[in-house]
Structures are given as C-alpha cells and as structure tokens.
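One thing: mind reviewing this one?
=====
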Amino acid sequence: MHLFSIRRISVCFLATLILVVSAIAQPINPPSVDAVVQEALKAWNVPGAAVAIIRGNEVLYVKGYGVKDLRTAQPITTDTIFAIGSTSKAFTTTAMAMLVDEGKMNWDDPVRKHIPWFRLSDPLANENVTMRDIVSHRTGLSRNDLLWYGSPWGREEIIRRIGFVKLTRPYRAVYQYQNIMFLTAGYAVGQITNSSWEDFVQRRIFDPLGMKTANFSATVAEKAADHATPHRKTKDDKIEPIPWRNIDNVGPAGSINASVRDLSSWVRMQLGKGIFEGKRIVSEKNLAETHTPQMVIQMDEATRANNPETNLMSYGLAWTVQDYRGQLMVSHNGAIDGFRARVALLPKQNLGIVLLINADIYPMLYTTANGLTDLMLGAEKKNWVAYYKDVDQKTTAEAKRMLAEREAKRFKDTKPSRDLAAYVGTYEDPGYGTATITLENGALALAWSNFKVKLEHFHFDTFLVRENRLENEQISFTLGADGEVRTMKLLDVEFKKVMPAAKATASR
C-alpha cells in the first residue's frame, strides 16, 4: 500500500479514536458542575435549582443550589420538592409499558378499546386513533390547553370536550404537542386497572423506586415541609414568588412533583433498562419502545435556535429523541407556572442528568442542561449564557414586532357595527362550552371557563383582552344578513350565539 495512503488511514483512525474517547462520559468534577449551575443562576436571576448526575446505577452527583423562596431564603436541598411538569409524561408511558408487559394493553390498541366513549371530531382519526398515537402527539389536534388550564372541568369532561374540537392538521401528518391526549392515556391506565393513574404509578413506580416524597398534586406538595416556591419574571424583569398552580385535572400529562433525589432513582431505572436495584420494574423491550422515535419533530426556526447542536429530532413515547453533538440523547422538558424541569438520558454513555429550577425561565434550563451535558461528554466549552441571551433577546424582539405589526394594521377611530348591548348574550361551542358576554360600566366583559375579563375595543367588531392568561387575545364577532350578532371567535374557536343575555336569564 502507498505510504501516503497508510498515513491517511492512520490519521483518520486517530481522529475517529479521539471522537470515540471524547464521547465517553467524563468523571465528575464538582467545582466544574457548581460553576456551570452558579453561572446560570446568576445570569438568569433564578432563585434556585437542584441537579443530579447519574451514571448507570450510581448517583455521581446530587446537590441543591440557591433558595426555595426569595422571601424566606431557605436553601434548596436534595429533597426539596419541585413541580416537574411534562417530565411526568414518561411515568404515564412507563405505566402503559407495564400493562403491555402484562397483556392488558397493546401500543396499537384502539383508544376506544379502553375508553369506549372516546372520540375525535375527524372521521378518519376517530376511526383509527390508537394508544400509540395519543402519546406521540400525532392525532392532528393542536394544544387547546385552556380546556384544562385554569378550567372548572374534571378529567372525563375534558376528554369528552376535546372530542368536539376540530383537528388543525391531518391525522398522523404532523407532530403537534397535545396534553389532553396524555391525560386520556393516563385515564385509560386507571380504567384498565380498575383504579386510577395515581394509584398505579404510586404502587408500580414510586414505591418500588423508593420515591418517598414524590406526589401527584400541588395541594400535597405545598403541605410538604421541604418544597420549593414557584417564581416568575415580571414585565419589568423582576423575579417574584407566585402561588402553585393546581393541575390535577390533567394529571397524567404533568402533575407530578418530586425532588432531585427521587428523580435520580427514576433515571437509574431508565438507564438500567427497566431494572432497579436488581428488581425488574418493566421489561427492557417495552421501556425501549418509549425511547424509540415515533414522530418526526419539525426543526423550525425556534426549535433550531433552542437546539443548535442538533440535526434531527423525533418524539418517542413521552421522550424527545435527538442527536446532541453527535451523540444520542433521550430527554424531556417540563414546564408549569413558576417551575422548569429537564430529565435527559445519554444511553451510549449510560449517563443521566436531572435539572429542576423554581422559576419559569426556559433559557436558564437550556443554558444549564447544555453546560452540564458538555461537561460530562468532555466537549469543547461553549458560552451557553451568551448564546441563550441572544436567543432570548431575539425571541422577545420578535414577539414585540408581531404585536407592533398588528397594531400598525389596526383601523383606528372605528366603532363596533352595533350598540354594545347587541353583543351581549350567551355563546356556545360543543367543545369549549358556554361563554357569556355582558355589559359592565359601558364596556363588554367575557366570562368563559374560569376566566372573567374585560374587553377593549380594537377595531370594527374585534375586541382585545388585556389581562391574565388571555392577554393580547383577540375576540371578534360576526353579524348575519339581518344585522344581528351571530358568532364570536375566541381562541380560534367559533362560538354561536344562542340567545341574548336577558332572554337567557328569563328562561332560567
């Protein structure tokens, strides 16, 4: 062989060897871990965090940082309870995997096999939707989160209501994140086992893993002696404590609360391919199925910005599956008012990372998670704080630009087509229920779900909400040929007017 070819092969081999060696998880360097977390806490002005790093069956590092509550300044411990949001979803699919192990469920069972009254509004989706579909975000339904967030409806009613909501994309065509379908999956777990999602997860996951402080409700978490307080950033960029958000009505999609120590055991079982401390919890085959790509996630501009070291991304069964610096990563983020969470697995390195923070600041989550992952992979250090500061500024600027553009297109000095009293009445939609428009102190007001908000005239027959979760939402009315108000569009849902408020009151 030619000498030059031999040298070229040697160089290629050496380069490959360097890549392989660099991909092997590095030993823990506590000061380096602390530096990553402390830098992020300071940069994003977050009160506190908790971190665990696991390799195989061993917890290499676990620590709390900062404070539980800015008002009390009590330090976060490794047993401090945080809301973990949508990282709860993997507990639901692991429960499903156990039922598949037992022959009580198949991934591709029709949903109606386990919930006979379940339906979707699209005939094709309704006829074919499976358990796998509802936990891989591919039913064609968009989020519709306000059917559960802050709503007065229980689990069964929410599932029934979503059956009347129009699909925004064709069945199985596109990944669209959908919490209510995970609620449905957890509800099915309860139906199959003649119990509840909570009871099954407690007996089959929390108890065997020794997750002693883990629970399913904000009402329980708040009573614990060692729990974090959620915080949010105000419009003037200050950080303030806020109340816990109770989301019992969508529990299987995100209501679990746990400490970083609890979640270390959960990650050990995941890395152990279903085994924890010598005991088989779930089969390797069906646990692996939850880590397997099911639906492609479109790498749009925002997704690329938040995942700059990723080329391809898919959704498994409650896990995001992607490449990160050339390595396989299986992860999920969690978010609910005042909390952010991340659980990430690097299967080839037998490595897991848990990150919990008590503020609703996503850039902090990405900054810290990427910094810790790079540290464990021995990757080249990157200034993630500077990177995500830039992303955050661009995101904020884009949101302001869109609002400014809408304002620029506003037709000023217009009036509603009718006197305000003509818009007053009861409006209904099969899925979203009843909304009421009233006239209060010379202005329209909306009552829907648990929301009660004032409406500000925008232009013509369009009004604007300026408060709470509906802030900047536009509400528009349409008139019939006879000039009477016929419909109201809220959250892109068309509510039909059924009767004026006066008649509605009289009929009761």
Notes: The chain is about 35% helix and 25% strand. Confidence is low (pLDDT under 50) at residues 1-23, 504-508. Residues 190 and 200 are 7 Å apart (CA to CA).
